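Exercise 7. Predict the joint structure of the components listed below.
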Amino acid sequence: MALFYVARYPGPEAAEVGAHGRARTLLERLQSRARERQQQREPAPTEAAAPTEPASRKRRRPRRRRRVNGSEPESPEARRGKRRKADDEDAGAGGPRRAGRAGSLRGASDPVLTRSPAGVCRAESSEEAPGERSARAKAAPDGRVPEEAAGPLAPGLVLGGFGRRKAPKVQPFLPKWLAEPSCVRKNVTEDLVPIEDIPEVHPDLQKQLRAHGISSYFPVQAAVIPALLESAACGFLVGRGGYRPSDLCVSAPTGSGKTLAFVIPVVQALLSRVVCHVRALVVLPTKELAQQVSKVFNIYTDTTPLRVSLVTGQKSLAKEQESLVQKTADGYRCLADIVVATPGRLVDHIDQTPGFSLQQLRFLIIDEADRMIDSMHQSWLPRVVAAAFQSEDPADPCALLQRRQAQAVTAASICCPQMPLQKLLFSATLTQNPEKLQQLGLYQPRLFSSGLAHRGLEETDEDKESGKYAFPVGLTHHYVPCSLSSKPLVVLHLVLEMGFSRVLCFTNSRENSHRLFLLVQAFGGVDVAEFSSRYGPGQRRAILKQFEQGKIQLLISTDATARGIDVQGVELVVNYDAPQYLRTYVHRVGRTARAGKTGQAFTLLLKVQERRFLRMLAEAGAPELQRHELSSTLLQPLVPRYEEALSQLEESVKEEHRQKLA
Ligand SMILES: Nc1ncnc2c1ncn2[C@@H]1O[C@H](COP(=O)(O)OP(=O)(O)OP(=O)(O)O)[C@@H](O)[C@H]1O
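Solution:
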């Protein structure tokens, strides 16, 4: 309390004159101090460090020493005077203490960024060298460093240096399974494995494969099918040796046959089932993809008792429920062995379909896994896992056989035979980010990869060249430098003059797709259609079918068809709008050159995009893009019709706008 009072004691003069007088006294004192300082500054700068130090500084030193030693107690009067002085310094912003601070600030603006003899930019900071620190100690109270004290500056690093320097690349330290994958060859024309070389595949399935024109396995199939069949060799109970099988991650180029790599072993593993339960669940990001995969399952289960159900929301919930479960006198009967679903609709069925159970789920297949990881915020995976491990009444006589979440493997934990849940991840651009993959709760995962070769600490030059993602071997990459106004002309030139019969053209938005579609339609001479969320699922299905049948020459699409869609005979992919991400590029261009065929990809680049885009691809180790310059003389013949089409487009847009408002 006493201390508090003393600290706020305003001084004898102030007490006399009251608040107004106190301010005036303070002002006068500040003015006199400023005058004093002015006089001190007048001598030459070299004198500043010489014995003529300000009186206040001289006075302070012995006092401080006394306090530290504690040998000579200060009198109350001396203490009061010192406090008053400290108050003055704080208020005056010009006393020795402030001057020192101002000096260091000044030092930060000019001497801090200096050039050493070696030309290295240096900074004085809290990490200054001892020599520099002593020089600073000799500085005058106003912050100026005397010339003889400054001396040569020691080399050091700039903090926040302004020079543009490339930041060193941080090498990720990957877990062993990611750093050392099982390498899968990517050439689907050369590295084929004849069907008979993998005798583990059931003869009926081999027959089906041949019936569908497949005589050899592609490399990813030759690697993954035997691995999966081996892990499923013990039927529906724990894998080989009594242990739970590893989860598998597969990263292989677009069009390399990843779908069959899981369809064949899953169908074979389920062939021996007696009772129908949902034992395989495939989750895909879009309705179209789910439909495509369910079609492949249907082909290979056609002659078996296995049933496949598609739940994507294309049909009503009630209709889908009818394909999943049937009400019986004593409960529900499952009607599907394999469910192919989109995540949202799947969760609807977990919540709302009585009798829909995932407790016997053996395979959880996540196709386009990197995209599905991006949709993890929808929490579909925890819902699926919870449904798969849902435990019934512990008093149930079958409780011993019920599945439990994986814990530490002990002799006791493996003595009860359990059906394992194995996760299988597939993508052409599988993430290598362990944090992202960790969200999937993988069990002792194993990676099969064509592109992510040995990226651990000991990365070799060869590995760097192998690139982040692998592209189909038969794909040729081009880019066309062009202006914004000439982009539609370039597309028309590619379609009309280069004679491609099936062209897939990507834009970055559905508005862009629609306008380009209207423009090309108005230009005439091209069978054109658009594919985007403007259309319902039924219309989209019909459009894709027509495109596949060759009735549409140019399909203008958003990224809705960029992933997984397998349309036979696409010869050319045009990136009308350059993709922003490498992953998008990989999937878009992967709609051509599938299954060992050849294909071309053209990306239209504005001048401002060129450098960044080419650098993005080069850094990812993508094959070099061939520059394809289209001179104005080549495009000139198209211009008159194009201008007419432009004015028609304007009319169409106005008309649509009017209809929208009506
Ligand atoms: N062994 C094979 N022999 C011949 N054709 C095959 C073989 N395996 C798959 N295909 C065909 O290759 C095409 C591409 O297969 P799939 O759609 O499975 O590729 P993907 O690797 O999943 O591609 P994406 O990453 O784009 O989804 C399909 O038309 C498929 O029928």
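Discussion. The first helix runs from residue 2 to 7.
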